[in-house]
Specification:
alpha/beta; Rossmann fold; 2 domains; 5-stranded parallel sheet; 3-stranded antiparallel sheet; 50% helix
Length: 230
């Protein structure tokens, strides 16, 4: 069994950014569960499965094998032996991943693959149900959050930096609506695990958050022979 860190939290909390940084400092594999959902969406689209047909999706998704590897420090998502990185961010895949990820059979399929990845390697995994459903026995559990206003400002700044016109008020409204959906969905709702450490990043820098998480891993890191890197 690998050394596992589970990071959960709402949209815009900085989970991916922080998880990548901690992974680099501790020499862990970063498991991007969002990329895995995108990969299974690619698979189902290729197979021309009707995404509104839950039985068809359930029958077909069993044929998808998805894993994550690192090649020259780049995360590579492998779908049935093929590097599909170039396909994960297309407009169609981005639009349909939320539809696919809501399907119970898809979540169960990826849950089993994520558990396998965690068993095979020391890793940090982020998402919305990692500490509660995917890795309930993770060595360290973090619930990463920030106020909706702070998360909206971060997303607004990102979009502006890319030259994308956007409205701060609308972004915050979208984030709050996404929070509600994630927290009230029937399958694997977003909730803080009872044994997860709450980390509110509203007044923290990225580096401060990463160092705080690493400090929480201290005892485990020593036991596993891991150490933080400057």
């Amino acid at each position: 069994m690998g050394f596992n860190i589970a990071v959960d939290g709402p949209a815009g909390a900085g989970k991916s950014t922080i998880a990548r940084l901690v992974a680099g400092k501790l020499g862990l594999i970063y498991v991007d569960t969002g990329a895995m959902y995108r990969a299974i969406t690619v698979f189902l689209l290729r197979e021309k499965v009707d995404l509104s047909d839950e039985k068809a999706v359930a029958d077909k998704c069993g044929e998808a094998d998805i894993t994550i590897r690192y090649r020259e420090d780049e995360q590579v998502v492998i779908l049935n032996g093929e590097n599909v990185n170039r396909l994960l961010r297309t407009e169609e895949v981005s639009r349909l991943t939320s539809v696919v990820s809501a399907q119970p059979a898809v979540r169960e399929k990826l849950r089993s693959l994520q558990i396998r990845l965690a068993a095979e390697s020391d890793c940090i995994m982020d998402g919305r149900d990692i500490g509660t459903c995917v890795l309930p026995n993770a060595d360290v559990k973090i619930y990463l959050t920030a106020s909706s206003a702070v998360r909206a400002k971060r997303r607004y700044a990102e979009q502006c930096a890319r030259g994308i016109a956007c409205d701060l008020g609308q972004i915050q409204k979208d984030i709050e609506e996404r929070d509600y959906r994630d927290m009230h969905r029937e399958v694997a709702p977003l909730v803080q695990a009872p044994d997860a450490v709450l980390v509110d990043t509203s007044e923290m820098t990225i580096e401060e958050v990463a160092q705080h998480i690493i400090s929480l891993c201290g005892g485990y890191c020593k036991a596993e022979g891991l150490s933080g890197k400057d």
